[in-house]
Structure formats: structure tokens, C-alpha cells
Design a protein that fits this description.
The structure holds 3 protein chains of 3 kinds. Chain A has helices spanning 6-68, 73-78, 80-100, 105-125, 130-133, 142-278, 287-324, 334-344, 346-352, 369-385, 443-453; strands at residues 329-332, 355-358, 365-368, 394-402, 405-411, 457-463, 467-475. Chain A is built from 11 helices and 7 strands. Chain C has 6 helices and 5 strands. In chain C, strand 3 (61-66), helix 4 (74-83) and strand 4 form a beta-alpha-beta unit. The longest helix of chain C has 17 residues, at 122-138. Classes of the chains: A alpha+beta, B alpha+beta, C alpha/beta.
Chain lengths: 486, 92, 146
């Protein structure tokens, strides 16, 4: 099952694009609104501006007409102040007009004509002299001209107003278009986002489902394998158990009837003794030998063999039981555990004159106490048992963490193991070296079975006549899945 | 692709809203034959400075009638219907 | 109770050799009670539950039971005996090669009275049988069905 995990990443890129597009649309709306506001403001300014211009034009016209009414000389003299006021008003109106229409070349172009009109009227009423009039242009019918001119000026402002309105409408139209486009964009982005989000979610759900399926398949396969192994293991254990029991049953008979034979032989011996005393002539030659030597010898061999067989069967039984025992993992302080193990072996160690050194700072592990005790106790016991003749055993146990495992080394100065036997010693009923110590070859087989069950491993480093090191590696944290079915 | 298209459209529309002003640095002479009405004025060739424009325009209007007039301006929005307004600077 | 009925020993044991050895040792221990031998569980249960047999005539019984039987498991036989109201007080001595703790516990849970592991070591086996003889002489065997 191949899972395409890139698809959601590509989708994420698209997604960011969508969000950006959404922001662009929003910015468009905001920007358009801002521009519209500015335009609006300008229009309002324009209205105010036109109104002002109109006022100034009116003021100019009124002032000029008033000045024109000062036709008589005595009027000028009598109402000099009034004339002065109108002149000032006219001047300021023209100045204002100039300023207000400073962006319009046509209105500006009219200013000289206005000034000429002003000068003409002032000359006509006699407010200024010919000298003061100077080079100014002469205007015929200044009042008629004034009427036409002011009307043209007002028309111009009106026309500009219309033009401004048209411009505003164009801008508004543009704004609405932008607004519409942005709205559309938002809708499209929203739709696309929705669609891609749905697709993304669907893909996610699909891939998660696929992953779950794959996991389920894997888990199922593992479960099947584990079940198979457990079944095989269970069958093996049952087999061992049944075999050992059914082997024992005839053995009981062999032993029992051997004993009966022994009793019978003893009776025969007594009878032989009796016959020797009372009627030795009736005895066949060789009868004594048969009864006193051959019979007990045969019985002895049968007995020792059956005893040995019983021990072997017991060993198989013990191994099969070990495999079916439920492990109960717990946190173990290995310093204490090792001290306890040494304590149980104290008597044997003293008898052998052995010295057992437990290194400090043993790693703490989570595992089955009984199993680990059995392993270490077996290893230390072996180290005591298989010493180099004439050399008191010195045994050292060290422990350290290596990754997820704890490594324990049981080192002795014993007789050592032939490198060719490194594998053999772990087999059931197999031993190495001189067979001068008691034992059935069960201990290490048992140790290895237990170590495997804990998910660990065991190795030997050894040199003949120098000593051996058993290197035990077990997981720091026991878990059922990790343990090998042994 | 779609996004780029939209972006371009938005920019175009926004651009349309902005004032399209003429060339700022160049002066034009605006001549009006009769200031008593609002007929379309004549526009001169461009000048580098306002001074150049004025001298040229004054020469041009020397023999003209009283109701004619002119102004030099730059940065004007050339409006529709022949109206010239909203110039950045107008001199006489 | 001054003149109790003689106790019959019912031995359910499929291995003839074992049966012979058990009998020999019982006799050697000085127990002369009648021993009825069955080599399978079905026949033994048939005998024990046969209603035509008069329990009073048969007298009180002690059962020696092997756990490995060819036709059914010894524990099943034990369960049947201890379930039956007329037999549940009958002493049952379980004799087997098993020394499995779980199985021993199961036998006691089912109500067996004594559990003897058949040792390969003949001396200890004989000793166990002798103890059984002692057990036989001490226990009060109830009237069958009582």
C-alpha cells in the first residue's frame, strides 16, 4: 500500500494562495472605498469652490455696477468713503477669483479683461485719472461686457461642475465594478477554498483510512504470526509435559519391580545361605555367583539408569513448566536483586571458598523477578561449580545500560569453556569439559530459554584454564511483544 | 491563473479611477478667441518654461481683439467636452 | 460402630504394573481389606453408581484414583464422585505421576482427601503407601450413602 502524502502538502500551497486571493479582494474593496471617499470629498470641495467663485463673480459685478453709478463729480466727492469701499471690495473679489480659479487657464485668461473693465469703469466715473488708467485697453460698453463676461464665467463653473459630476459617476461605476469583482473573487475564493478543503479533508480521511487499513493488515499479520508461534510453542510445551508424564509412568513400574526384584534377590540370598548350611550338596556350581554377584549387579545398573532417566524427565518437565509460567514484570533494583541471589548461594560459595564481587550502580530494569533471579543464580552457581582445580573462584558481576538494554557480565576465573562448545553448553543435557561435576546439563539450557523469553540474548567469552564471561543482555523494559517465543 | 486574472482586472479598474494627468513638466499656451463665451480654446505647442510660453503667447495675441485672452498652464487634466480644468499651475 | 463393615478399597488404575505394585505395598503394610481393581473410569463409575448393587452389601469404600486414565480424566471421575450425594463423603486418594502444583490444587478443590505422587523412587513410594495404610486405619469411613 503506497500512500501519497504529498497531495495534502500541494493542497496546502493552494490553500495559502486562496487566502492571499481573499485578502487581495478585501484590499480591493477597501482601496476602492478609500478612493471613492477621496473623490467624494473632491466633489464636495468642487461644489464649495464653484459657489465661492460664483460669489466672487457676483461681488465683482455688483461692485462694478455700484462704482458705475458714481457718475457725477459731486457724488464722488460726497461719497468718497463709499466709493473706496466698493473699490476695495472689487479688488478683493478679483483677487479671490484669481486665486480660486488658479487651476483653470480659461478663467485666468479672463482676469486681464476684468481688470481692463475695472479700469474703464473707474475712468468713466472719474475715480481715476487718464494717467492712472495708463496703457490699459479701452473697452466699449463696459457694463454690457460685464454682463456677458460674468455669465460666461458662471457658465464655465457650471460646466466644470457637470464635468466633475460625470467624472464622479465614472469613478463610482468603477468602484462598483471593483466591488463586484472583489465580491465575485471572494465568492470564488470561498467556493474554491470550500472545494479544496473538502477534497483535502476527503484525502486526509482516505489516507488515514488507508493507513488504518495498512496498520490493521499489519497488526493482523503480526497477530496471526504471534498466534501461530504461541500455538506452536504451546503444543511443544504440552508435548514435553505429556511425554515426561507418560515416560514417567512406565518408569514407576521399572523402579517398582526392580525393588521387588531386589527383595526377591535378597530372599534368594538368604535361602542360599540356608542351603549352604544345611544341604550344600544340592547347590549347582555357579549358583552363588549368580545370586550374590550377577543379580545385584544387574539390579544396580537398572536402578542407576532409571534414576538418571527420572532426573532427565524432571528436567524436561521443569523446562516446559518454565515456558508456561506467566511473567510478572516489575521494576527491579538490580543491586538488591543480585545481593539476594548471592545470599542464597552463600553456603555453596563458602564451601568452595569463592569470592563474589557485585559491582555497584547496577541498572534498574523492568522485568520478571523470578526469571532474572533464575538466570543470574544459575550463572553464578556455574561459576562457583566449574572452578579451575586448586584455584578458589573469584566471580565478578557488572551491569550497565546499553541503549534499550541492560548488559550484565558474570566473569569468573574458572576452568573455561572450549570455544567449540560455546553453543553446545546451552543445549539440553549437553555439557562441556571433564564430566567430573554433578549435573545433568540443564542449567544453561534453562537460562537461555528464560533469556529468550525475556527478549534478551546471552553470549560467552572464554579461554580454557583462564576463565569465562557470560554476557547477558536483557531489555531495560520488558514488553510482551518484544519477547521471543521460546 | 484565475487569481492573477482577477488581480490584473482589479488593478486596471483601480487605475481607471485615478486621475490621468498630462505631462507635468511641460507648459502649454491656452488661447481663447472670445472670452465672452466658453468655446473651446486653442492649445499651443509645448514649452519648457512658463516664461517661454508667455512670451510666445504675448507675441501671438499682440494684434488680437480686446475680448481674447490666454494663459499658460501645466499638468492639466484634459477633460471631455473640450474643457480644460484642474491644472497643476496656471500663470498669466 | 463396634463392629464396622469392612472397608472395600476400590482402585482405579489403568497401568497394571502400578496396580500390582500398589497392591503389593498395601499388603506389605499389613492391610488386608478387599481390593477391587478397575482399569478404566467408565467401569469404575458404573460399579459405584450401579443402583442394582446394594450399597449396604458392598459396604463402605475407599477409592484409590489414578489421574491418567485411558477413557476419561481422573479429575472427571473425582468430580462425579464428589458431586453425587450418596458418594461425596467417600474418601478418595489420588495417586498419580503428576507433581504439577496446579493439578494438585485442582484435585483438592474438587474434594480429594489425600494426594500421593507416585515416586519413581520406590522406597518413598512404599513409604507413601504405608502412610496410606495408616490413614486407612485412622479414618472413620462413613456408612456408604450416609
Amino acid at each position: 500500500m503506497v500512500l501519497d502524502l504529498r497531495a495534502p502538502i500541494a493542497l496546502r500551497g493552494k490553500w495559502i494562495g486562496m487566502i492571499l486571493l481573499g485578502f487581495v479582494a478585501l484590499a480591493g474593496i477597501v482601496g476602492s472605498a478609500a478612493i471613492l471617499m477621496t473623490m467624494n470629498q473632491r466633489q464636495m470641495d468642487g461644489v464649495a469652490h464653484a459657489y465661492q467663485v460664483e460669489r466672487q463673480v457676483s461681488a465683482m459685478r455688483v461692485s462694478l455696477l455700484r462704482i458705475d453709478s458714481f457718475r457725477r463729480k459731486k457724488d464722488i466727492e460726497r461719497r468718497a468713503d463709499e466709493l473706496k469701499t466698493y473699490r476695495t471690495r472689487l479688488d478683493s473679489a478679483i483677487a479671490s477669483f484669481r486665486t480660486l480659479t488658479s487651476d483653470n487657464p480659461r478663467q485666468q485668461a479672463r482676469v486681464p479683461l476684468l481688470e481692463a473693465l475695472q479700469a474703464q469703469v473707474l475712468l468713466d466715473v472719474g475715480a481715476i485719472t487718464k494717467e492712472e488708467f495708463g496703457e490699459s485697453i479701452r473697452v466699449e460698453d463696459p457694463l454690457g461686457m460685464l454682463d456677458v463676461l460674468t455669465k460666461a464665467m458662471q457658465d464655465e463653473e457650471l460646466r466644470l461642475q457637470r464635468f466633475r459630476n460625470a467624472e464622479m459617476r465614472r469613478i463610482q461605476y468603477g468602484f462598483y465594478v471593483v466591488l463586484g469583482a472583489a465580491g465575485l473573487l471572494l465568492i470564488v475564493v470561498g467556493l474554491l477554498t470550500f472545494v479544496s478543503l473538502r477534497r483535502f479533508t476527503r484525502d486526509l480521511v482516505n489516507s488515514r483510512q488507508a493507513l488504518r487499513d495498512a496498520n490493521a493488515g499489519l497488526e493482523l499479520a503480526v497477530q496471526e504470526r504471534t498466534a501461530d508461534l504461541k500455538r506452536a510453542n504451546g503444543e511443544l510445551q504440552r508435548f514435553a509435559y505429556i511425554v515426561s508424564h507418560d515416560l514417567r509412568s512406565p518408569l514407576v513400574n521399572v523402579m517398582g519391580f526392580t525393588s521387588e526384584l531386589e527383595i526377591a534377590a535378597k530372599r534368594l540370598g538368604e535361602m542360599l545361605e540356608e542351603a549352604r548350611k544345611t544341604r550344600p550338596e544340592t547347590l549347582f556350581p555357579g549358583t552363588d555367583e549368580l545370586i550374590e554377584q550377577d543379580l545385584p549387579e544387574a539390579i544396580h545398573f537398572i536402578r542407576t539408569s532409571t534414576q538418571k532417566m527420572d532426573r532427565l524427565i524432571n528436567a524436561i518437565l521443569q523446562l516446559s513448566r518454565q515456558g508456561s509460567r506467566a511473567l510478572m514484570p516489575a521494576w527491579l533494583d538490580m543491586n538488591r536483586l543480585l545481593a539476594d541471589v548471592v545470599e542464597t548461594l552463600k553456603v555453596r560459595a563458602e564451601q568452595a571458598g569463592a569470592q563474589i564481587i557485585i559491582a555497584p550502580n547496577q541498572p534498574e530494569i523492568y522485568g520478571d523477578r523470578v526469571a532474572i533471579e533464575q538466570i543470574l543464580s544459575n550463572l553464578i552457581e556455574n561459576a562457583i561449580k566449574y572452578n579451575q582445580p586448586g584455584r578458589p573462584p573469584i566471580i565478578e558481576v557488572t551491569g550497565r545500560r546499553i541503549g534499550t538494554h541492560a548488559e550484565f557480565r558474570v566473569t569468573d576465573n574458572g576452568r573455561g569453556i572450549d570455544p567449540g562448545d560455546f553453543e553446545r553448553v546451552f543445549d539440553l543435557f549437553r555439557r562441556s569439559g571433564a564430566q567430573d561435576r554433578p549435573g545433568e546439563g540443564i542449567g544453561l539450557a534453562h537460562v537461555r530459554a528464560v533469556v529468550y523469553r525475556l527478549g534478551g540474548s546471552i553470549l560467552i567469552e572464554s579461554e580454557l584454564g583462564v576463565g569465562s564471561t557470560f554476557i547477558l543482555s536483557i531489555p531495560l523494559h520488558y514488553s510482551e511483544e518484544q519477547s521471543q517465543v521460546s | 491563473m484565475l487569481a492573477a486574472g482577477f488581480l490584473l482586472g482589479a488593478c486596471f479598474l483601480l487605475g481607471g479611477c485615478l486621475d490621468s494627468r498630462g505631462q507635468d513638466d511641460v507648459w502649454y499656451g491656452y488661447y481663447y478667441d472670445d472670452l465672452r463665451d466658453n468655446a473651446e480654446g486653442a492649445i499651443s505647442r509645448p514649452y519648457k518654461t512658463a516664461q517661454e510660453c508667455r512670451i510666445a503667447m504675448q507675441d501671438y495675441t499682440m494684434e488680437a481683439k480686446v475680448t481674447s485672452g490666454f494663459a499658460c498652464a501645466r499638468g492639466c487634466a484634459s477633460a471631455r467636452d473640450g474643457a480644460i480644468a484642474n491644472c497643476r499651475e496656471v500663470v498669466r | 460402630m463396634s463392629n464396622p463393615l469392612p472397608v472395600t478399597i476400590i482402585m482405579i488404575e489403568d497401568d497394571l504394573g502400578h496396580a500390582r505394585l500398589i497392591e503389593k505395598n498395601i499388603r506389605r503394610a499389613g492391610i488386608s481389606n478387599h481390593i477391587t481393581h478397575f482399569d478404566n473410569g467408565t467401569a469404575a463409575l458404573e460399579f459405584l453408581f450401579n443402583p442394582t448393587q446394594d450399597p449396604a452389601r458392598r459396604g463402605p469404600v475407599l477409592i484409590l484414583l489414578d489421574l491418567n486414565l485411558p477413557d476419561m480424566s481422573g479429575t472427571a471421575v473425582l468430580a462425579r464422585i464428589k458431586e453425587a450425594p450418596e458418594l461425596h463423603r467417600t474418601p478418595v486418594v489420588v495417586l498419580t505421576t503428576t507433581d504439577d502444583r496446579v493439578e494438585i490444587q485442582r484435585c483438592y478443590d474438587l474434594g480429594c482427601n489425600v494426594y500421593i505422587t507416585k515416586p519413581v523412587n520406590y522406597e518413598s513410594f512404599a513409604e507413601a503407601i504405608r502412610q496410606l495404610g495408616l490413614f486407612l486405619s485412622v479414618i472413620q469411613i462413613p456408612e456408604s450413602g450416609g
